[in-house]
Amino acid sequence: MNNFSFANPVKIIFGKETIKEISKEIPAAAKVLVIYGGGSIKRNGVYNQVTDALKEHTFFEFSGIEANPHYETCMQAVALIKEKKCDFLLAVGGGSVVDATKFIAAAACFDGPDPWTMVAGKGKIEKAMPFGVVLTLSATGSEMNCGAVITKAETQDKLAFHSSLVYPKFSVLDPTTTFTLPPKQTSNGVIDTFVHVVEQYVTYPVNAMLQDMFAESILKVLVKEGPKALKQPKDYDVRANLMWASTWGLNEWIAQGVPQDWATHMIGHELTALYGLDHAQTLAIVLPGLLKVKKEQKGDKILQMGEQVFGINDNKPQAVLIENTIQAVEDFFEEMQVKTYLSDYGLGQEAVDAVANRISARGWMLGEHQDISGEVVREILKLRL
Questions:
Q1: Mean pLDDT, to the nearest integer, of 195-202?
Q2: Would strands 88-93 and 131-135 be described as parallel, antiparallel, or unpaired?
Q3: For 49, which of 19, 69, 193, 227 could close a Cys bridge (C-beta 3.0–4.6 Å)?
Q4: What is the pTM (predicted TM-score) of this model?
């Protein structure tokens, strides 16, 4: 196991009818900006629960955060914060709203001329507004970590940033808020969580037994409960298990002391930025191809995942077991009703070339060994045509 130093300060408030608890977590004198996406929180009753909990507070609202939050939209929220002199933010929604709120919290305190530099790695985050979360979609784990992904629509850039200053002060996780999610969002959330775990787990062994077993348990919950959520969307226990698994998928605990990959995400971000595919759709396309191209380097952990998560332990050659495990991953994505090939989304060789060329132009070398170049990306995506 590698050395590590770790602290996660996020308070989790989990369970039924817990949204009302936010009134105790937000300072009484705070001017709150409630940030959300479309109208779903008004249709499913979450909006009423939030506003009722804030009835003793002064609060304002900002809506319209996109599924892939745009820098341009976030800056409109920053302007409103300054106009209304808000000093606390509340993200109400899924990971995109939480990611947007993290950026807004930092951008509202940024002294430089262009807050986008914080995302592009050229500007330092030195201060951020405090904020809390009411989660309505289990997927990204953003409710318990300090990372976010923001898209600049003008340049079609989708980039990630991290700062210990943008941990939420608290996150409310009420599984009943996910009962009315469209099946597509349920499927996307399960796949997003699955790939989050794989990025931290399917690399190479460092004898981190606890992290491996935690990762395997999360994956097994997803494989078992994910399909159930599509058939029984209002089963509280299923939704609770998926919501907590999603948080654990990226709350940074299973990442401690182990190598991490994240190439699937970086490649997927380019597909989303260029072609507008859902984040989880891009992950479902890229991961099987990446595992195939990197099966020798990742072989030990692929075999481990096959045995521990999918029960693949036949007396067959290792090469066959590796292929069977990769196929099991692809089959699981398909079972969750998410297609796994570029052609399923009307994309062909032009998309392969566009993404590979962008990776090359950025000079990125991806993966746990920093050996996935633009040309390797081209090889990965060719397998997904």
A1: 98
A2: parallel
A3: 19
A4: 0.95
CA 15 to CA 5: how far, in whole Å?
30
The burial class, CB within 10 Å (0-12 / 13-18 / 19+), for 100 is buried
Torsion (CA) 24, 26, 32, 33 in degrees, nearest 10: -100
* pLDDT > 90? residue 237: yes
d(CA 86, CA 233) in angstroms, rounded, equals: 37
Sign of the dihedral defined by the CA atoms of residues 244, 247, 248, 253, in that order:
negative
Report pLDDT digits (tens) over 313-361.
Answer: 989 999 999 999 999 999 999 999 999 999 999 999 999 999 999 999 9
| pLDDT of residue 199 exceeding 90 | yes
Name the H helices within 35-125: 40-43, 46-53, 71-84, 95-107, 116-120
Residues 130 and 273: their CA atoms lie apart, in Å, by 29
Question: Is a pLDDT exceeding 90 seen at residue 113?
Answer: no
* C-alpha dihedral sign at 293, 297, 299, 302: negative
The two three-digit tokens of residue 236, written as one number: 């509280």
Over residues 16-33, the pLDDT tens digits come to 999 999 999 999 999 999
Instruction: Indicate the DSSP class of residue 10.
Output: P
Q: Rounded to whole angstroms, how far apart are CA atoms 148 and 164?
A: 11
